[in-house]
Amino acid sequence: MLELKDLKLSYGSTQVLNGVNLSVKRGDVVSIIGPSGTGKTTLLKCINYLVKPASGTIAFDQIRMDYQRADKAAIQAIRLRTAMVFQQFNVFKNMTVLQNVMDPLVVVQRKSTDEAREIALRELERVGLSAKRDSYPSQLSGGQLQRTGIARALAVRPDVMLFDEPTSSLDPELVGEVLKVIKDVTSSGITSLLVTHEMQFAKNISNRIVFMDRGVVAADGSPAEIFDAPSNPRLAQFLQSELAFQ
Amino acid sequence: MDVSAMIPELFSALPLTLAITFTAMFVGFCLALVATTLRVRRIPVVSHLTDLYVSYARSVPVVLQLFVAFYGLPLLVALLGAEDFFSPTIAAMVGLSFYHGGYLSEVMRPAYLAVDRGQHDAADSLGYTFRQKIARIVGPQAVHFALPGYGNSIIYLIHNVALVMYIGAADVMATAHLIMERDYNQYQFETYLVLAVIYALMCLIAWFIVHFFELRSPMQAPEATTTAQIKNAAIASV
Ligand SMILES: Nc1ncnc2c1ncn2[C@@H]1O[C@H](COP(=O)(O)OP(=O)(O)OP(=O)(O)O)[C@@H](O)[C@H]1O
Ligand SMILES: [Mg+2]
Protein backbone atom coordinates (compact mmCIF):
# COMPACT_ATOMS: atom_id res chain seq x y z
CA MET A 1 0.00 0.00 0.00
CA LEU A 2 3.02 2.28 0.57
CA GLU A 3 5.98 2.27 -1.71
CA LEU A 4 9.00 4.55 -1.63
CA LYS A 5 11.45 4.43 -4.51
CA ASP A 6 14.97 5.75 -4.75
CA LEU A 7 14.56 8.46 -2.12
CA LYS A 8 17.47 10.88 -1.99
CA LEU A 9 17.93 13.74 0.39
CA SER A 10 20.79 15.82 1.69
CA TYR A 11 21.09 18.54 4.30
CA GLY A 12 23.54 20.97 2.75
CA SER A 13 26.51 18.88 1.72
CA THR A 14 25.70 15.85 3.92
CA GLN A 15 23.92 13.18 1.95
CA VAL A 16 21.43 11.60 4.36
CA LEU A 17 19.27 9.38 2.16
CA ASN A 18 21.13 7.72 -0.69
CA GLY A 19 18.33 6.05 -2.61
CA VAL A 20 16.00 4.38 -0.14
CA ASN A 21 13.56 1.77 -1.41
CA LEU A 22 10.85 0.53 0.87
CA SER A 23 7.49 -1.06 0.32
CA VAL A 24 4.93 -1.80 2.97
CA LYS A 25 1.89 -4.03 2.62
CA ARG A 26 -1.41 -3.45 4.32
CA GLY A 27 -1.32 -4.85 7.84
CA ASP A 28 2.47 -4.96 7.99
CA VAL A 29 4.21 -3.95 11.16
CA VAL A 30 7.65 -2.90 10.00
CA SER A 31 10.37 -1.93 12.44
CA ILE A 32 13.20 0.20 11.12
CA ILE A 33 16.47 -0.21 12.99
CA GLY A 34 19.95 1.09 12.36
CA PRO A 35 22.78 3.17 13.76
CA SER A 36 22.19 6.72 14.91
CA GLY A 37 22.29 9.30 12.14
CA THR A 38 21.54 6.96 9.24
CA GLY A 39 18.38 8.81 8.30
CA LYS A 40 15.59 6.81 9.93
CA THR A 41 13.78 9.86 11.24
CA THR A 42 14.38 11.64 7.97
CA LEU A 43 12.83 8.74 6.06
CA LEU A 44 9.62 8.85 8.13
CA LYS A 45 9.45 12.61 7.70
CA CYS A 46 9.67 12.23 3.91
CA ILE A 47 6.44 10.26 3.89
CA ASN A 48 4.61 13.26 5.36
CA TYR A 49 6.70 15.74 3.42
CA LEU A 50 8.01 17.35 6.60
CA VAL A 51 11.34 17.36 4.83
CA LYS A 52 11.77 17.69 1.07
CA PRO A 53 13.63 14.88 -0.68
CA ALA A 54 15.67 15.92 -3.69
CA SER A 55 14.35 13.02 -5.73
CA GLY A 56 12.41 9.79 -5.56
CA THR A 57 8.79 8.75 -5.70
CA ILE A 58 6.10 7.74 -3.29
CA ALA A 59 3.03 5.64 -3.98
CA PHE A 60 0.32 5.40 -1.39
CA ASP A 61 -2.46 3.21 -2.73
CA GLN A 62 -3.60 5.15 -5.78
CA ILE A 63 -1.85 8.39 -4.77
CA ARG A 64 1.42 8.81 -6.62
CA MET A 65 3.96 11.57 -6.40
CA ASP A 66 7.39 12.33 -7.73
CA TYR A 67 9.23 14.41 -5.14
CA GLN A 68 10.75 16.53 -7.88
CA ARG A 69 7.23 17.60 -8.81
CA ALA A 70 5.75 17.79 -5.33
CA ASP A 71 2.06 18.41 -5.52
CA LYS A 72 0.01 19.91 -2.73
CA ALA A 73 -3.04 17.73 -3.18
CA ALA A 74 -1.04 14.51 -3.06
CA ILE A 75 0.92 15.68 0.00
CA GLN A 76 -2.28 16.56 1.81
CA ALA A 77 -3.95 13.27 0.83
CA ILE A 78 -1.01 11.31 2.22
CA ARG A 79 -0.90 13.42 5.37
CA LEU A 80 -4.57 12.75 6.00
CA ARG A 81 -4.10 9.01 5.75
CA THR A 82 -1.01 8.69 7.90
CA ALA A 83 -0.39 9.77 11.47
CA MET A 84 2.96 10.33 13.07
CA VAL A 85 4.16 9.82 16.63
CA PHE A 86 7.30 11.81 17.38
CA GLN A 87 10.39 11.16 19.42
CA GLN A 88 9.92 14.53 21.15
CA PHE A 89 6.13 13.95 21.48
CA ASN A 90 5.25 17.29 19.88
CA VAL A 91 2.01 17.49 21.78
CA PHE A 92 0.46 20.94 21.25
CA LYS A 93 1.60 22.87 24.28
CA ASN A 94 -1.22 25.37 24.29
CA MET A 95 -3.95 22.75 24.52
CA THR A 96 -5.14 20.24 27.10
CA VAL A 97 -4.80 16.53 26.46
CA LEU A 98 -8.40 16.32 25.27
CA GLN A 99 -8.06 19.38 23.02
CA ASN A 100 -4.91 17.89 21.51
CA VAL A 101 -6.82 14.82 20.41
CA MET A 102 -9.98 16.68 19.38
CA ASP A 103 -8.45 19.60 17.51
CA PRO A 104 -7.35 17.79 14.33
CA LEU A 105 -10.75 16.15 14.11
CA VAL A 106 -12.57 19.46 14.34
CA VAL A 107 -10.16 21.64 12.36
CA VAL A 108 -8.88 19.26 9.69
CA GLN A 109 -11.61 16.66 9.42
CA ARG A 110 -14.44 19.13 10.11
CA LYS A 111 -16.22 16.84 12.52
CA SER A 112 -18.70 18.29 14.99
CA THR A 113 -17.37 19.05 18.45
CA ASP A 114 -19.58 16.36 19.96
CA GLU A 115 -18.41 13.70 17.59
CA ALA A 116 -14.77 14.72 17.97
CA ARG A 117 -15.13 14.67 21.72
CA GLU A 118 -16.62 11.22 21.68
CA ILE A 119 -13.81 9.83 19.51
CA ALA A 120 -11.15 11.61 21.56
CA LEU A 121 -12.49 10.28 24.85
CA ARG A 122 -12.50 6.76 23.45
CA GLU A 123 -8.87 7.03 22.32
CA LEU A 124 -7.80 8.53 25.63
CA GLU A 125 -9.46 5.63 27.39
CA ARG A 126 -7.53 3.28 25.16
CA VAL A 127 -4.16 4.79 26.08
CA GLY A 128 -5.15 5.07 29.73
CA LEU A 129 -5.30 8.85 29.97
CA SER A 130 -8.96 9.53 30.71
CA ALA A 131 -8.12 10.98 34.10
CA LYS A 132 -5.65 13.45 32.61
CA ARG A 133 -7.84 14.79 29.83
CA ASP A 134 -8.00 18.33 31.20
CA SER A 135 -4.31 18.62 32.01
CA TYR A 136 -1.92 20.78 30.02
CA PRO A 137 1.29 19.27 28.61
CA SER A 138 3.38 21.16 31.17
CA GLN A 139 1.65 19.12 33.85
CA LEU A 140 2.38 15.68 32.35
CA SER A 141 5.18 13.13 32.47
CA GLY A 142 7.00 12.06 29.32
CA GLY A 143 5.09 8.81 29.19
CA GLN A 144 1.77 10.62 29.47
CA LEU A 145 2.83 13.10 26.78
CA GLN A 146 3.72 10.29 24.41
CA ARG A 147 0.45 8.49 25.09
CA THR A 148 -1.32 11.77 24.29
CA GLY A 149 0.62 11.86 21.03
CA ILE A 150 -0.45 8.30 20.26
CA ALA A 151 -4.10 9.01 21.09
CA ARG A 152 -4.02 12.08 18.82
CA ALA A 153 -2.59 9.98 16.01
CA LEU A 154 -5.10 7.15 16.49
CA ALA A 155 -8.06 9.52 16.63
CA VAL A 156 -7.63 10.59 13.02
CA ARG A 157 -8.15 6.93 11.98
CA PRO A 158 -5.02 6.71 9.84
CA ASP A 159 -4.32 3.90 7.40
CA VAL A 160 -0.68 3.93 8.47
CA MET A 161 0.88 4.81 11.80
CA LEU A 162 4.40 6.21 11.76
CA PHE A 163 6.26 5.91 15.06
CA ASP A 164 9.61 7.69 15.30
CA GLU A 165 11.53 6.34 18.29
CA PRO A 166 8.52 6.83 20.52
CA THR A 167 10.32 5.78 23.69
CA SER A 168 13.86 7.03 23.27
CA SER A 169 13.39 10.35 25.05
CA LEU A 170 11.60 8.73 27.98
CA ASP A 171 12.96 7.93 31.41
CA PRO A 172 13.53 4.15 31.60
CA GLU A 173 10.69 3.59 34.07
CA LEU A 174 8.21 5.21 31.66
CA VAL A 175 9.17 3.18 28.59
CA GLY A 176 7.01 0.23 29.58
CA GLU A 177 3.70 2.07 29.65
CA VAL A 178 4.27 3.47 26.16
CA LEU A 179 5.47 0.18 24.66
CA LYS A 180 2.36 -1.49 26.05
CA VAL A 181 0.16 1.01 24.21
CA ILE A 182 2.13 0.62 20.99
CA LYS A 183 1.88 -3.13 21.20
CA ASP A 184 -1.87 -2.80 21.65
CA VAL A 185 -2.04 -0.53 18.59
CA THR A 186 0.11 -2.65 16.28
CA SER A 187 -1.65 -5.86 17.26
CA SER A 188 -4.99 -4.30 16.29
CA GLY A 189 -3.99 -4.77 12.66
CA ILE A 190 -3.18 -1.20 11.69
CA THR A 191 -0.28 -0.88 9.27
CA SER A 192 2.66 0.54 11.20
CA LEU A 193 6.17 1.77 10.61
CA LEU A 194 8.22 1.92 13.76
CA VAL A 195 11.69 3.37 14.11
CA THR A 196 13.15 2.01 17.31
CA HIS A 197 16.22 1.10 19.27
CA GLU A 198 14.21 -1.38 21.40
CA MET A 199 15.45 -4.53 19.68
CA GLN A 200 13.54 -7.06 21.76
CA PHE A 201 10.34 -5.11 21.34
CA ALA A 202 10.82 -4.81 17.58
CA LYS A 203 11.39 -8.53 17.36
CA ASN A 204 8.22 -9.25 19.31
CA ILE A 205 5.75 -7.00 17.55
CA SER A 206 6.98 -6.81 13.95
CA ASN A 207 6.47 -9.10 11.04
CA ARG A 208 9.27 -7.34 9.17
CA ILE A 209 12.51 -5.65 10.11
CA VAL A 210 14.31 -3.11 7.95
CA PHE A 211 17.93 -2.34 8.73
CA MET A 212 19.01 1.10 7.55
CA ASP A 213 22.65 1.96 7.27
CA ARG A 214 24.36 5.01 5.77
CA GLY A 215 21.27 6.26 4.03
CA VAL A 216 20.09 3.05 2.38
CA VAL A 217 18.09 -0.04 3.30
CA ALA A 218 20.91 -2.51 3.94
CA ALA A 219 18.83 -5.49 5.03
CA ASP A 220 15.16 -6.32 4.99
CA GLY A 221 13.47 -9.49 6.25
CA SER A 222 11.50 -11.31 8.91
CA PRO A 223 12.55 -10.86 12.54
CA ALA A 224 14.07 -14.34 12.47
CA GLU A 225 16.12 -13.59 9.36
CA ILE A 226 17.38 -10.31 10.73
CA PHE A 227 17.99 -11.12 14.38
CA ASP A 228 18.85 -14.80 14.37
CA ALA A 229 20.81 -15.10 11.15
CA PRO A 230 22.06 -11.67 10.08
CA SER A 231 23.72 -12.04 6.69
CA ASN A 232 24.99 -8.48 6.44
CA PRO A 233 28.22 -7.97 8.44
CA ARG A 234 27.33 -4.37 9.38
CA LEU A 235 23.98 -5.59 10.64
CA ALA A 236 25.63 -8.29 12.76
CA GLN A 237 27.98 -5.70 14.18
CA PHE A 238 25.13 -3.31 14.90
CA LEU A 239 23.06 -5.97 16.64
CA GLN A 240 26.01 -6.97 18.74
CA SER A 241 26.61 -3.43 19.92
CA GLU A 242 22.90 -2.90 20.63
CA LEU A 243 22.69 -6.11 22.63
CA ALA A 244 25.86 -5.28 24.53
CA PHE A 245 24.31 -1.94 25.37
CA GLN A 246 21.05 -3.34 26.64
CA MET B 1 -4.45 79.92 41.06
CA ASP B 2 -3.56 77.08 43.38
CA VAL B 3 -2.00 73.68 42.94
CA SER B 4 -5.21 71.64 42.90
CA ALA B 5 -6.60 73.66 39.97
CA MET B 6 -3.82 72.44 37.74
CA ILE B 7 -4.76 68.78 38.15
CA PRO B 8 -8.03 68.92 36.15
CA GLU B 9 -6.22 71.06 33.59
CA LEU B 10 -3.59 68.38 33.17
CA PHE B 11 -6.23 65.69 32.97
CA SER B 12 -7.99 67.56 30.19
CA ALA B 13 -5.00 66.72 27.99
CA LEU B 14 -5.23 63.05 28.88
CA PRO B 15 -7.72 62.05 26.14
CA LEU B 16 -5.39 63.31 23.43
CA THR B 17 -2.43 61.59 25.08
CA LEU B 18 -4.39 58.36 25.22
CA ALA B 19 -5.60 58.79 21.64
CA ILE B 20 -1.98 59.07 20.47
CA THR B 21 -0.99 56.08 22.61
CA PHE B 22 -3.81 53.83 21.46
CA THR B 23 -3.41 54.77 17.82
CA ALA B 24 0.30 53.97 17.97
CA MET B 25 -0.47 50.76 19.84
CA PHE B 26 -2.99 49.63 17.24
CA VAL B 27 -1.27 50.80 14.06
CA GLY B 28 2.12 49.73 15.43
CA PHE B 29 0.75 46.27 16.17
CA CYS B 30 -0.53 45.90 12.61
CA LEU B 31 2.77 47.17 11.17
CA ALA B 32 4.66 44.74 13.41
CA LEU B 33 2.52 41.83 12.24
CA VAL B 34 3.17 42.65 8.60
CA ALA B 35 6.87 43.30 9.21
CA THR B 36 7.27 40.06 11.14
CA THR B 37 5.52 38.03 8.46
CA LEU B 38 7.73 39.54 5.75
CA ARG B 39 10.86 38.94 7.81
CA VAL B 40 10.27 35.31 8.74
CA ARG B 41 9.24 34.46 5.18
CA ARG B 42 12.57 35.76 3.82
CA ILE B 43 11.32 37.09 0.50
CA PRO B 44 14.24 38.64 -1.42
CA VAL B 45 14.37 42.47 -1.45
CA VAL B 46 11.05 42.87 0.42
CA SER B 47 12.46 41.21 3.53
CA HIS B 48 15.62 43.31 3.34
CA LEU B 49 13.62 46.52 3.08
CA THR B 50 11.63 45.42 6.11
CA ASP B 51 14.86 44.73 8.01
CA LEU B 52 15.93 48.26 7.12
CA TYR B 53 12.69 49.71 8.49
CA VAL B 54 13.03 47.73 11.72
CA SER B 55 16.59 48.86 12.31
CA TYR B 56 15.53 52.48 11.64
CA ALA B 57 12.74 52.19 14.21
CA ARG B 58 15.00 50.58 16.75
CA SER B 59 18.20 52.57 16.36
CA VAL B 60 17.13 56.16 15.62
CA PRO B 61 16.23 58.12 18.78
CA VAL B 62 12.48 58.46 19.07
CA VAL B 63 12.62 62.29 19.22
CA LEU B 64 14.39 62.20 15.89
CA GLN B 65 11.81 59.82 14.45
CA LEU B 66 9.13 62.28 15.52
CA PHE B 67 10.94 65.14 13.75
CA VAL B 68 11.28 62.99 10.66
CA ALA B 69 7.53 62.35 10.74
CA PHE B 70 6.78 66.01 11.45
CA TYR B 71 8.85 67.33 8.53
CA GLY B 72 8.47 64.35 6.23
CA LEU B 73 4.73 63.88 6.46
CA PRO B 74 3.84 67.32 4.97
CA LEU B 75 5.86 66.42 1.87
CA LEU B 76 3.98 63.16 1.56
CA VAL B 77 0.51 64.64 2.09
CA ALA B 78 1.34 67.41 -0.39
CA LEU B 79 2.15 64.74 -2.95
CA LEU B 80 -1.22 63.17 -2.30
CA GLY B 81 -2.93 66.59 -2.32
CA ALA B 82 -4.28 66.22 1.23
CA GLU B 83 -2.63 69.11 3.07
CA ASP B 84 -5.60 69.66 5.39
CA PHE B 85 -4.96 66.27 6.84
CA PHE B 86 -1.72 67.29 8.49
CA SER B 87 -1.43 68.30 12.16
CA PRO B 88 1.19 67.82 14.88
CA THR B 89 -1.09 65.22 16.47
CA ILE B 90 -1.25 63.23 13.23
CA ALA B 91 2.53 63.50 12.86
CA ALA B 92 2.90 62.24 16.43
CA MET B 93 0.61 59.30 15.73
CA VAL B 94 2.44 58.40 12.52
CA GLY B 95 5.90 58.80 14.05
CA LEU B 96 5.10 56.74 17.13
CA SER B 97 3.25 54.07 15.14
CA PHE B 98 6.32 53.50 12.99
CA TYR B 99 8.59 53.49 16.02
CA HIS B 100 6.38 51.08 17.95
CA GLY B 101 5.79 48.81 14.94
CA GLY B 102 9.49 48.35 14.31
CA TYR B 103 10.23 47.81 17.95
CA LEU B 104 7.39 45.32 18.36
CA SER B 105 8.43 43.37 15.30
CA GLU B 106 11.63 42.56 17.13
CA VAL B 107 9.48 41.17 19.93
CA MET B 108 7.25 39.14 17.63
CA ARG B 109 9.91 37.62 15.41
CA PRO B 110 11.90 35.95 18.19
CA ALA B 111 8.61 34.81 19.75
CA TYR B 112 7.58 33.15 16.50
CA LEU B 113 10.97 31.51 16.15
CA ALA B 114 10.84 30.34 19.77
CA VAL B 115 7.96 28.00 18.94
CA ASP B 116 9.41 24.53 18.75
CA ARG B 117 9.96 23.18 15.22
CA GLY B 118 8.21 19.98 16.36
CA GLN B 119 4.94 21.87 16.82
CA HIS B 120 5.05 22.79 13.13
CA ASP B 121 5.89 19.19 12.21
CA ALA B 122 3.00 17.79 14.24
CA ALA B 123 0.49 20.25 12.78
CA ASP B 124 1.76 19.73 9.22
CA SER B 125 1.68 15.96 9.51
CA LEU B 126 -1.91 16.09 10.74
CA GLY B 127 -2.92 18.09 7.67
CA TYR B 128 -3.40 21.56 9.15
CA THR B 129 -3.18 24.30 6.54
CA PHE B 130 -0.67 27.08 7.17
CA ARG B 131 -3.41 29.41 8.39
CA GLN B 132 -4.95 26.79 10.68
CA LYS B 133 -1.53 26.02 12.08
CA ILE B 134 -0.81 29.67 12.85
CA ALA B 135 -4.27 30.36 14.24
CA ARG B 136 -4.57 27.29 16.45
CA ILE B 137 -1.07 26.29 17.46
CA VAL B 138 1.90 28.44 16.53
CA GLY B 139 0.17 31.80 17.06
CA PRO B 140 -1.07 31.16 20.59
CA GLN B 141 2.30 29.77 21.61
CA ALA B 142 4.14 32.72 20.08
CA VAL B 143 1.83 35.05 21.99
CA HIS B 144 2.91 33.35 25.17
CA PHE B 145 6.57 33.97 24.36
CA ALA B 146 5.89 37.53 23.22
CA LEU B 147 3.89 38.77 26.19
CA PRO B 148 6.72 39.90 28.50
CA GLY B 149 8.42 41.74 25.64
CA TYR B 150 5.09 43.17 24.56
CA GLY B 151 4.53 44.58 28.05
CA ASN B 152 7.89 46.30 27.90
CA SER B 153 7.26 47.72 24.45
CA ILE B 154 3.98 49.25 25.64
CA ILE B 155 5.72 50.86 28.59
CA TYR B 156 8.41 52.31 26.31
CA LEU B 157 5.68 53.59 24.02
CA ILE B 158 3.94 55.37 26.89
CA HIS B 159 7.22 56.96 27.94
CA ASN B 160 7.92 58.07 24.42
CA VAL B 161 4.53 59.71 24.03
CA ALA B 162 5.95 62.37 26.40
CA LEU B 163 8.21 63.41 23.51
CA VAL B 164 5.43 64.53 21.20
CA MET B 165 5.50 68.01 22.76
CA TYR B 166 8.69 68.61 20.79
CA ILE B 167 6.68 68.63 17.59
CA GLY B 168 3.88 70.65 19.14
CA ALA B 169 1.25 68.04 19.96
CA ALA B 170 -0.74 69.06 23.05
CA ASP B 171 -0.36 66.02 25.29
CA VAL B 172 -0.17 66.09 29.12
CA MET B 173 3.52 66.97 29.03
CA ALA B 174 3.01 69.94 26.72
CA THR B 175 0.02 71.06 28.74
CA ALA B 176 2.08 70.89 31.93
CA HIS B 177 4.61 73.24 30.41
CA LEU B 178 1.90 75.65 29.32
CA ILE B 179 0.48 75.70 32.84
CA MET B 180 3.86 76.28 34.40
CA GLU B 181 4.70 79.18 32.11
CA ARG B 182 1.34 80.80 32.70
CA ASP B 183 1.75 80.49 36.48
CA TYR B 184 5.23 82.03 36.44
CA ASN B 185 6.83 78.67 37.23
CA GLN B 186 5.51 78.67 40.78
CA TYR B 187 4.51 75.05 41.01
CA GLN B 188 7.06 73.31 38.87
CA PHE B 189 7.85 70.55 41.32
CA GLU B 190 4.19 69.84 42.06
CA THR B 191 3.30 69.78 38.39
CA TYR B 192 6.07 67.37 37.51
CA LEU B 193 5.07 65.21 40.43
CA VAL B 194 1.48 64.96 39.22
CA LEU B 195 2.81 64.22 35.75
CA ALA B 196 4.99 61.46 37.14
CA VAL B 197 2.00 59.91 38.88
CA ILE B 198 -0.06 60.02 35.68
CA TYR B 199 2.67 58.24 33.69
CA ALA B 200 3.29 55.73 36.44
CA LEU B 201 -0.41 54.92 36.58
CA MET B 202 -0.68 54.47 32.82
CA CYS B 203 2.32 52.13 32.81
CA LEU B 204 1.08 50.20 35.81
CA ILE B 205 -2.32 49.62 34.26
CA ALA B 206 -0.77 48.51 30.98
CA TRP B 207 1.64 46.23 32.78
CA PHE B 208 -1.14 44.79 34.92
CA ILE B 209 -3.23 43.90 31.89
CA VAL B 210 -0.34 42.25 30.04
CA HIS B 211 0.73 40.40 33.17
CA PHE B 212 -2.77 39.08 33.71
CA PHE B 213 -2.60 37.42 30.29
CA GLU B 214 0.88 36.11 31.02
CA LEU B 215 -0.36 34.32 34.11
CA ARG B 216 -3.42 33.01 32.36
CA SER B 217 -1.39 31.30 29.63
CA PRO B 218 -1.88 27.52 29.77
CA MET B 219 1.72 26.96 28.75
CA GLN B 220 2.79 28.65 31.93
CA ALA B 221 1.00 26.58 34.53
CA PRO B 222 3.18 23.93 36.19
CA GLU B 223 0.04 22.88 38.08
CA ALA B 224 -3.57 23.93 37.80
CA THR B 225 -3.62 27.71 38.16
CA THR B 226 -6.57 29.08 40.02
CA THR B 227 -7.93 32.58 39.80
CA ALA B 228 -6.86 33.17 43.38
CA GLN B 229 -3.29 32.24 42.49
CA ILE B 230 -3.33 34.63 39.56
CA LYS B 231 -4.53 37.43 41.83
CA ASN B 232 -1.94 36.70 44.49
CA ALA B 233 0.89 36.56 41.99
CA ALA B 234 -0.24 39.80 40.38
CA ILE B 235 -0.47 41.57 43.72
CA ALA B 236 2.88 40.20 44.87
CA SER B 237 4.62 41.49 41.76
CA VAL B 238 3.22 45.03 41.86
N1 LIG C 1 17.53 19.76 9.99
C1 LIG C 1 18.72 19.19 9.78
N2 LIG C 1 19.75 19.92 9.29
C2 LIG C 1 20.96 19.36 9.06
N3 LIG C 1 21.24 18.09 9.30
C3 LIG C 1 20.28 17.30 9.79
C4 LIG C 1 18.97 17.80 10.07
N4 LIG C 1 18.22 16.80 10.55
C5 LIG C 1 19.01 15.73 10.57
N5 LIG C 1 20.25 16.01 10.12
C6 LIG C 1 21.37 15.05 9.95
O1 LIG C 1 20.92 14.04 9.11
C7 LIG C 1 21.40 12.78 9.52
C8 LIG C 1 20.25 11.81 9.67
O2 LIG C 1 19.39 12.25 10.70
P1 LIG C 1 18.18 11.39 11.22
O3 LIG C 1 17.56 12.16 12.34
O4 LIG C 1 17.31 11.02 10.10
O5 LIG C 1 18.91 10.10 11.79
P2 LIG C 1 18.30 8.89 12.60
O6 LIG C 1 18.63 7.67 11.82
O7 LIG C 1 16.88 9.15 12.93
O8 LIG C 1 19.18 8.91 13.91
P3 LIG C 1 18.78 8.63 15.42
O9 LIG C 1 18.76 7.15 15.58
O10 LIG C 1 19.88 9.25 16.22
O11 LIG C 1 17.46 9.28 15.67
C9 LIG C 1 22.17 13.02 10.80
O12 LIG C 1 23.54 13.00 10.49
C10 LIG C 1 21.74 14.38 11.25
O13 LIG C 1 22.80 15.01 11.88
MG1 LIG D 1 15.83 9.64 14.73
TrEMBL record, chain A:
UniProt topology in membrane: Peripheral membrane protein
A Pfam entry, by short name: ABC_tran
Entry GO MF terms: ATP binding
Keywords, sorted A to Z: ATP-binding, Cell membrane, Membrane, Nucleotide-binding, Transport
Subcellular localization: Cell membrane
Domain ABC transporter: from-to ranges: 2-239
Principal cellular location given in the protein's record: membrane
SMART domains: AAA (SM00382)
Gene3D superfamilies: P-loop containing nucleotide triphosphate hydrolases (3.40.50.300)
PANTHER family hit by this protein: AMINO ACID IMPORT ATP-BINDING PROTEIN, L-CYSTINE IMPORT ATP-BINDING PROTEIN TCYN
Family: Belongs to the ABC transporter superfamily.
Name of this chain's protein: Amino acid ABC transporter ATP-binding protein
Organism lineage: Bacteria, Pseudomonadati, Pseudomonadota, Alphaproteobacteria, Hyphomicrobiales
TrEMBL record, chain B:
Pfam family, one: BPD_transp_1
Principal place of residence: membrane
Localization in the cell: Cell inner membrane; Cell membrane
Keywords for the protein's UniProt record, in alphabetical order: Amino-acid transport, Cell membrane, Membrane, Transmembrane, Transmembrane helix, Transport
Name of the featured protein: Amino acid ABC transporter permease
Leader peptide range in chain numbering: none
SUPFAM superfamilies: MetI-like
InterPro entries named in the record: AA_ABC_transptr_permease_3TM (IPR010065), ArtM/GltK/GlnP/TcyL/YhdX-like (IPR043429), MetI-like (IPR000515), MetI-like_sf (IPR035906)
Transmembrane segments: 12-38, 59-79, 154-180, 192-213
Keyword Transmembrane recorded: yes
Origin species: Mesorhizobium qingshengii
Membrane topology of this protein: Multi-pass membrane protein
ABC transmembrane type-1 domain sequence ranges: 10-210
Matches recorded under Gene3D superfamilies: MetI-like (1.10.3720.10)
